[in-house]
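Two quick folds needed for the group meeting slides. Do the first one here.
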Amino acid sequence: MREKKEYSEADSKKEIRKREILGVALKEFSEKGYDKAVLEDIALKAGVAKGTIYLYYKDKKDLFNHSILFIIDKFVEIIENIVESNLSPIDKIKSVIRDQVKYFVDNKHLFNLFQMAFQEKLIEKDGLTYSEIIDKGLMIDNLQRKIVEEARKLGAIKNEFSTDDIIVVCDGVVTSILKEVRARELYHEYKNRIDKEGYNLNERLENTIKIIFEGIAKKEV
């Protein structure tokens, strides 16, 4: 029994070290981009030898792929929690938007990295990690579909709009708001979520959600 305990503790330490390396890599890739990020710097900031990285990741590309997989896993976790919640179907759809925006506002470097990975086509298409990324992407899509279809069955949404259309709009809102936040930060206009011009992230988010669910046209009288 003692040997089993020692093995378990050693295994736990390896997982902790692996996560520490990944945490540093996420910041390095997001701040410097893929090309300028180097394993020597990642190792130094993680407090390990460069060779230690190769115990967990094949190379720089593999480490980058795992960084993207980490972000996608967070997406899955966020949406799974919404699916399992007691919220109404419509509130679940709204939460898909709210919770993703909140996560990326709280972890802006991950949004930068995620955008960069797909815009610059940096994800390596060979190997197990790529397959995992695709599988997790399909899982997110299926979870979103489950939420929308639940709302549809209960008559909470109009049948004239397809599930794909609704998902595209929700994803578009998340991306659009996060890009605006990023732009304001770059020009030093966005501070503490409310800037000198009165920009309020939460208000913008709620107004956008209201437009989606209520529309912009006045009701006929």
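Then this one, please, same format:
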Amino acid sequence: MLAAFTQMWREHNRFRIVWVARMVTTFLFLAPILLMSRAYGSEGFAASGGGPDFVTFAAVGLVVINAATRPMSATMAYLSNANSVGILPALWTTPAPRWALCLGASLATLVDALVEGGLIIVLAFLIFGPSTQSVSLLAFVPLAFGLATFWGLGLVFGSLFLATRSWAAETVVTGLLLALAGTVFPITILPWSVRWLSYAFPHTYVLDALRHLVLGTPTIVPLPVDLAVAGASAVLAVFGGILMFRRADRTAARRGVIGLYT
């Protein structure tokens, strides 16, 4: 696990330009949100259940979605990169659980996401001034559930990669979360023709509980229901992902397709 963590960390962070790009990207993300909030105000946004601060609402959503989806994409990226350079079959002879290698890679990208989240908080402090929000320790519970859920999904998508070509699962999932899970706007503004889909995403409940505990926004369902749905999704995703990954591992090894697609 530590070896996979170190490999991914060095591959993604050894160049200084990466850190410069993160700071520039973070500023470019914050500036339009600040300008839109000043141009249009936040009265209607607050009336829709988003709270009085549009900037903080959007910042929390994007920081959390970035941190949650990184473990998912890291599993696929780790397997894909190992496959493209021809070392995937060698990794499969390592006397260690396969999921442990994926977990090490996921933790490396999670640290990346936390660093970027820290940059957003620092820049927001410098640009917008100090926040008066108080964070409940309970807020870490839905965040942990969200991280676990997407790591489990990463194993699901990674297991599919063992026997098939790489596909755009990360892009599809991230796009759906941005559009339907209330990442940057309350789902209450969506028409019912598509809003019902929002209730099918576990991340909707993760964000709903987290924002309530951090920003004090109203919840779409009672807080215990938010936490129960998020927790159940995390358990199902992790155990289901491990089981599916082990099954795909055995099938791919039996068919001899590990490392076939380069």
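Slide caption for protein two: The chain is about 75% helix and 0% strand.
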